[in-house]
What does this fold into?
Amino acid sequence: MPLTPEQQEEIDALRATPRQTLRAVSEGMEKHLYTAYPVLDHGFVRVIDYMGDDNAITQAARVSYGKGTKSVSNDEGLIRYLMRHWHSTPFEMCEIKLHVKLPVFVARQWIRHRTANVNEYSARYSILDREFYIPQPEQLAAQSVINNQGRGEALSGEEAARVLEYLKSDAARCYDHYEEMIGQEGQQGLARELARMNLPANIYTQWYWKVDLHNLFHFLRLRADSHAQYEIRVYAEEICRIVADWVPFAYAAFEDYRMGGATLSARALDALRRMLAGETVTQETSGMSKGEWREFETLLSAKG
Amino acid sequence: MPLTPEQQEEIDALRATPRQTLRAVSEGMEKHLYTAYPVLDHGFVRVIDYMGDDNAITQAARVSYGKGTKSVSNDEGLIRYLMRHWHSTPFEMCEIKLHVKLPVFVARQWIRHRTANVNEYSARYSILDREFYIPQPEQLAAQSVINNQGRGEALSGEEAARVLEYLKSDAARCYDHYEEMIGQEGQQGLARELARMNLPANIYTQWYWKVDLHNLFHFLRLRADSHAQYEIRVYAEEICRIVADWVPFAYAAFEDYRMGGATLSARALDALRRMLAGETVTQETSGMSKGEWREFETLLSAKG
Amino acid sequence: MPLTPEQQEEIDALRATPRQTLRAVSEGMEKHLYTAYPVLDHGFVRVIDYMGDDNAITQAARVSYGKGTKSVSNDEGLIRYLMRHWHSTPFEMCEIKLHVKLPVFVARQWIRHRTANVNEYSARYSILDREFYIPQPEQLAAQSVINNQGRGEALSGEEAARVLEYLKSDAARCYDHYEEMIGQEGQQGLARELARMNLPANIYTQWYWKVDLHNLFHFLRLRADSHAQYEIRVYAEEICRIVADWVPFAYAAFEDYRMGGATLSARALDALRRMLAGETVTQETSGMSKGEWREFETLLSAKG
Amino acid sequence: MPLTPEQQEEIDALRATPRQTLRAVSEGMEKHLYTAYPVLDHGFVRVIDYMGDDNAITQAARVSYGKGTKSVSNDEGLIRYLMRHWHSTPFEMCEIKLHVKLPVFVARQWIRHRTANVNEYSARYSILDREFYIPQPEQLAAQSVINNQGRGEALSGEEAARVLEYLKSDAARCYDHYEEMIGQEGQQGLARELARMNLPANIYTQWYWKVDLHNLFHFLRLRADSHAQYEIRVYAEEICRIVADWVPFAYAAFEDYRMGGATLSARALDALRRMLAGETVTQETSGMSKGEWREFETLLSAKG
It folds into this structure.
């Protein structure tokens, strides 16, 4: 349960007091504002603020391309055109600010997306809460045997139990010692900026994260992808659901051209043309490496 | 007169239809929304959208620094503290989107600020209007004799008249030929992406420009400064007036610590300490170069 | 002829004095260093400095992925893998610094790529040379009738002659007046920061431009593309030739996966799968818009 | 001892084979190349590559400012001028690539500097080594009583011993369990991307970090500062020593204007002017807050 009654109360209060504005309003987004959607065992995602809507994207595009594109009925088509042709600047005209609570090892992946603004909870300054991510049994997965960077089947039986026990007891002991070290009763108390080093990477942190829609789509393409680590993917998926309501045309175009799309190399395109002309193409005659050929075959046989 | 009746009508319509939102609202900013404030002879600045207010800055800072800083009465003090100690990330949590019409040579300076999002009118795609910046007589200044990168007194008499005549007639002739070259009556018509090269740098362009408050302050510090070229400074000053209403605490701190402040070198600080102790310090005994010493003296004698 | 004898002499002198270094050296790049390759009528591109080579890319990747990838024979395969899977950070480990002389209207497109470092010749501070881009007759193209943002056939006969005459005489007159306005004999002389506004956009400027390889590839994909305006494309193509010698494996992967590749939408992939299964797919049954379908057909029928 | 004999051997081999280049060479930097300078108990900093030298900075400035600044004797003065007037782009023309081994909690601070390129060791892909930062006794400091974000005196006696024991034994136990969980003998073995979450933040990671000189100076100003946490400051100080040899003029200017300098607010400048005119100024009559006044007094009484 990620939210305390006090937090829920604060959210309810914020949601109860609408104000007037002359700005663009996305009705689909207003209904999400402030609500903390639970992710993992103690995490959440909630929208703190946003700027713009689908119309802000086409409006910016029309500054560039002039009056020819003005008919309102064209909004969806124009957005699809912009997405297809990698015109990224109109999508940068929308902005979102999220409050995210997430385990430190997820935060370490997330922060690699540099084109965003971040204010993170400071463990130099403040004391971290006793909250650790402990995977659900079905997520306690074995190392993948085919992919260095992935996971396979869930562990089972004794092994699963032992792993769970380690994760829980190590987190608890590290946190007990963290608390004891910074405590100031009967002792000086270790500096917080030092004591935090004893905390394992499944402890939760939180931050405000602000990003424009273009860079958010880039983040979502990588992190909502099936190859992303499960623990960051669930955050990305939650954000996808929100964005779909915020900018429905842009999100649909993103799904079609980015999430559901694929980039083919010159060699792959050449193989395709030959296949469509009736030729039987093999890995050897394609010029592709084995790895690339395997990915190519998977792509062509996938269900849409 | 920068606005056509149609544009004014559109602005009036936008301003007439407030909607409800749950987001943070800056009342000071709402009154500016959409209004085009004239700058130079044909330019303007107008706010298209914004995100956040003073409270959004302290709210983000409190995510980092925890509960100790919560009392509302502290908002101004906290913002001043953040500004004084160069804590830039909380200021990045506010965002503004402007529509700006400006001469091309001003746009070329402006765009050097890279941390912003831009959609500019495309002269490849569309036809530019016949609008050129022609300086007011008092801005028709001579080259500075002490500063390679500055201007001195206004030109006068015949010289001023001749310069004005050149600027006007060259702009007119270049635009006449531009129009004639792209015309398609009785001829093919030159591609717009080529014809635009005949237009001088005082022609007006326009763009949407979106930036966060931290980077906007950086822009304003450089461009609202007395050393900035007049033609960009008037835009920066207009934006200053808007920002002062949008985030009054942050803007006041910016004025005190950035616009009105100064950075002193180790040598200058050392000289100061000696002067306060009663020593007479000269350029020679200060270790400063002549140029730096001159700037140091100017700073200490300036009226606050 | 873009280079003066003095410039050529300076380049020859720089090229005559090799020094010793312990850094990674790209032999293919050393032969290009300092040489100014002519582009358009007065422009050039020359390499001032570089950091890294193909090996720097794989070296950085191996810091991330550990020892499994160590065999040297794998360098090309690893680079292709990184490019195929959009692992951009290893490519950011190479850097190039170029000196470019280019018309202002080209510089205005170029600068939109924000992730680069730039030092441009300042027309506020210094006087611009009398050098204007005047297109070759075969590049004096008509506006495209099918694409707002493109050009069609070359103009011919009287129209071509008239356009050339306008471009040349307007440039000359504007420059004459520029010179006259800033002149200080018998008059004060207009400030350079103002006088420059009289110069048309085909005047040449120059800059140092420094960028990492990942962002350079992004620039080249957009600007060496057949849809890019000819006048920037010739710069991009010249840079492509240099990069091919600098990082041959990375450049070959870039050609295959980016320049020669294509991104297909989910709808396009679905159509492809159905076509490979023997179904006849039309625009109507594909779910694609007319525009997208046209692009899809063109892609499949193109020669590799 | 941070380096294995194998690593030292590799460094010696790299340092033994100079090659010829036509690029700018910094002799002061060549002597540092590849050498791993120890930092903390298991960390290090070493230079992998660099681009440019002091001359590259003035060369770029001269592209902007033209021929007036050409005399070679002026290099130091020009660099000081650029630094004093916040002309940042010429400093961006130098680039450095470092290999850094550092504790995770230090890496988390470091990565907040976004304008850099990073390739970090992937604990999703590879297994982390059993190396943890354990502070020296004199660094085992108590929480500061005056600064939420700082440390005071070193702990002593039993308390120090207990803290050391916790840090060591928790790290050892967490790593034992990490190893056991990913082990594949007689069990499936937990995915590495999950097992890593059991490791505390004092474990070491490593990365390649590439940054331009302007942004490096920004990093050093914040992290070599006395208010920075000791564990990141020692890295910054080590880098300072290297940079002083790489670009001696630029580094000296940085020390004078940034590290040793200070920014005064408008109110502080006003107080100074009054003090220099003989007036006695107090906090009350200065308009400064108590905190700002305290900092102001400290600055003026500091030894240069």
